[in-house]
Amino acid sequence: MSKYVDRMIEQLNKTYPWEKEFLQASIEVLESLRPVMEKDSRYEEAAILERIVVPERTIMFRVPWMDDNGKYHVNHGFRVQFNSALGPYKGGLRFHPSVNLSILKFLGFEQIFKNSLTGLPMGGGKGGSDFDPRGKSSAEVMRFCQSFMSELWRHIGQDLDVPAGDIGVGGREIGFLMGQYKKLANIHQGGVLTGKGQGWGGSKMRPEATGFGVVYFAQEMLATKGDSFEGKKVAISGFGNVAWGAVRKATELGAKVVTISGPDGFVYDANGISTPEKIAYMLEMRASGRDKAQDYADKFGAEFHAGKRPWCTPVDVAIPCATQNELGLEDVKELKKNGVIAIPEASNMSTTPEAMEFLFETDILFSPGKASNAGGVATSGLEMSQNSLRFGWESDEVDQKLHTIMKNIHKSCKEAAEQFGTPGNYVNGANIAGFLRVANAMIDQGVC
Ligand code: GLU
């Protein structure tokens, strides 16, 4: 079905054979769009697919910096300004050694649909660097951020492109980036970055938002089966900001989170990662820059499984919060065997295509990151509004808005999946609902 989609997939494979992650993300979306293209020829006539897969602009630059011993280093800097049909480009910056153009194009592409699903006026973009923050001193991180912003500042603005955090970029880095932006642009443009300190324009609840949002989304999925988080056993991967928020909210809703993980392995805590002390320790682990999950096991006397991922643990709900392709076919088979009922993605594109195919054949509730992790960027959108208003909502007000947005995203994904013939398939639902809003705006805006 849909020759237009076949043609596009062939073209993408031919044009970007080396952009593995971007191909994975874009082909997944194109596959979901088949029934839409069959039904409405306007998208083909306006060459929407040809346009939507090409970033409006990509900036690549050199980031030179000096370490504490006076040694020179050079990293690659990027900003992919993918689509501005719905608003200024919006999306995070990732600092991680794996970063390359393919990864940032996949993330920027996902961001278009995710931001569209929030219902807020935000286009899609992503950026970052192959800089490795692990083991770097705060002074080194600051000098790196200053150098990165020395080029980026001329390409961003509150009505142009609004970067934020992602892996390796948190409150501290946003602070350093803002300091340099202000100096070079000679303006305190509050809305040019989100995830700012809460004393200087940052939204309350932004650190919690992605993790809380994914649990709100999962709550809606479970409710379609008359179920809830109460009494559920949950496996979470990662121990960063997103994992921290998800542990907190799932625990609050009566679940017992038994795992977190890091690049070194996973922790199994039979008593649950449930006390305020344990949850707060996750923040300390992140701030230490050691990137070791074992620190938790050592401190609280929990089991540590070196070199393993948490998916072999028997749980009801599995929430991948670490990075792309962290859930493979063998992992989802194991989770299914152990009776998992829901897998809401919190990291972007957590699941490999083969694992996703397998999940579609089961009755496991599965949602793609672009839907279930949209609470982070949605709260960034709220931060932009608050900055424009020179005003800030209280935590409970932001939380309430976030909850409503997540419920609405769940509803639009569910309805789009039903309307286009695959009820219960949140991947198709998210891709279609996200696409329609962007594509219709692109049609309205003519050839651009
Ligand atoms: N990096 C986050 C994401 O993947 C947040 C982006 C933002 O707040 O702009 O959506």
Question: What structural class do you assign from the helix and strand content?
Answer: alpha/beta
* Percent range for β-strand residues: 5-15%
How confident overall, as mean pLDDT?
A: 98
Backbone shape: globular
As a whole number of angstroms, the C-alpha radius of gyration is 21 Å
Q: What is the succession of H and E elements? A: HHHHHEEEHEHEHHEHEEHHEEHEHEHHHH
Ligands present: glutamic acid
Count of helix runs = 18
Question: What attributes does this structure have?
Answer:
448 residues, alpha/beta, five-stranded mixed sheet, binds glutamic acid
Topology (SSEs and partners):
Blueprint: H1 3-15, H2 20-32, H3 34-39, H4 42-45, H5 48-52, E1 57-66, E2 72-83, E3 89-95, H6 101-117, E4 124-129, H7 138-152, E5 161-164, H8 171-185, H9 206-223, E6 233-236, H10 241-252, E7 256-262, E8 265-268, H11 276-288, H12 294-300, E9 303-306, E10 317-319, H13 329-337, E11 342-344, H14 353-360, E12 365-367, H15 369-372, H16 374-389, H17 395-419, H18 426-444
Parallel strand pairs: 3-4, 3-5, 6-7, 6-10, 11-12
Antiparallel strand pairs: 1-2, 2-4, 7-8, 8-9
Helix pairs in contact: 1-2, 2-6, 2-18, 6-18, 7-8, 9-10, 9-16, 9-17, 10-11, 13-14, 16-17, 17-18
Glutamic acid binds next to strand 3 and helix 16.
Structure description:
- The protein has 18 helices and twelve strands.
- It is an alpha/beta fold and 448 residues long.
- Strand 7 (256-262) and strand 8 form a beta hairpin.
- The chain is globular.
- 53% of the residues are buried.
- Bound molecules: glutamic acid.
- Residues 90-92, 114, 164, 166, 194, 348, 376-377, 380 line the site of glutamic acid.
